[in-house]
Design a protein that fits this description.
Elements (H helix, E strand, L loop, with lengths): L1 H23 L2 H7 L8 H8 L4 H11 L5 H31 L5 H6 L1 H9 L9 H13 L9 H16 L6 H4 L12 H22 L7 H6 L13 H12 L2 H10 L5 H13 L5 H7 L10 H13 L3 H14 L7 H14 L2 H11 L6 H12 L8 H12 L7
Helix pairs in contact: 1-5, 2-13, 3-4, 4-8, 5-8, 8-9, 13-15, 13-17, 14-15, 15-17, 17-18, 18-19, 19-20, 19-21, 19-22, 20-21
Amino acid sequence: MRRVTFLITSIALAAIVFGFLCYCQPWLMTAREQSQLWLCSIDYLGIRLSEPGGLARYIGEFFVQFYYYILWGAIITALLVLAMIWLWWLVVYRIWKYHRGTLCPLWLYFVSLIPLIFLWLSLRDINVQMTLPMAVCLTLLCSLLIPKQGKGTFPTTIVLMLADWWLAGPVCILLPLFAPWSLFSQQRPAIGKGLLRMGLLAVLLTGVILIYAPHSNRPLRDIFAGIDYKVQDGFIGVAEEQQYDLLVHLGLWERLLAVAQENPPQKHSCHYAVLLAQWQQWNTGEGELRQCIRDTWGSLSSCCSSFLMSDLYLKLGWVNMSQRAAYEALVSFPNYNYSGRALKRLTETSLITGRYELVKKYALMLEQAPFYRSWAQEALHMAEHPELIEQNVNCRYLRQTYNMTPDAMFY
């Protein structure tokens, strides 16, 4: 009965996550995917492993790359929730079995899920990265390696915590809590001794961080708070910008106008997106649209708004402006990530303007990203054989528009 209840509850939670991401706020996934570029290369793995928490970040970015497709992203996240619930419950069950020696009561199934639910709810904030839940998963796995008996329990915890700090980041401080027998024994649960050991672990971790900090280019507060657990607010973009960016990128003009009619846009870039949608629906003239968008000062307020404006500029044939907006998005991410979408747009604009060396530079990088590989190979082929550009309907149209349209760099 307990197993059936737990299974049904887990599947229900995973289904809720799938429905929320796929149908309620899919822009959360696209905003995450375009803020990184996971590369299938040893060099990229080495770069990630060169910093504390690098393995958690690498694994998190691996899963986020599937957000390139909304359906796949929702499925992957739901499966991650299921796997983490199982792992979390395995750790809780071990703790209960060690101290109580009996089967877990039914109420513990539900109470134990509360911290996990809050952890995944925190990902509704676009600034909280997938690195955080992956770091918790790695710490839970490390706790399974701590033996329940023997004199080596506490020394093993020290070694595993330091290793976990490099793999998962400062979340490693939770490791002894996931294996409380490392703090005090079952026969004589001395609370004072447990607190002393916990304090010793905290001091040891603080000392290791202070020793490492001078050799890192990261601020000390970021090392203590966790590299890439959470980025600074305001850089990626608010929910409105994320939603409008997705609608423009997918060309869902009717839905965009419906959203704008229900809640008038507040951001400059979202207002321009509405004008573009009206033009696409033949509700306004192209000349009027160009006049309204001639002065777009203040529209590149975040990464999402920069992507949105890059799409808008490209549809008007303002290739240099589109390139500059994509570059602004690329260099604006506070966690120093590359962006697959930004590099793809820079490759696109370089094809149109005839800068084939830049095309090769960007496309060779994108070729190492699984979801961009086929497009990058096509771009490389076109750069090596420029005559093929005229055979591509979209590129031919953009090049013709670019040649006939007065263009300037963004000011």
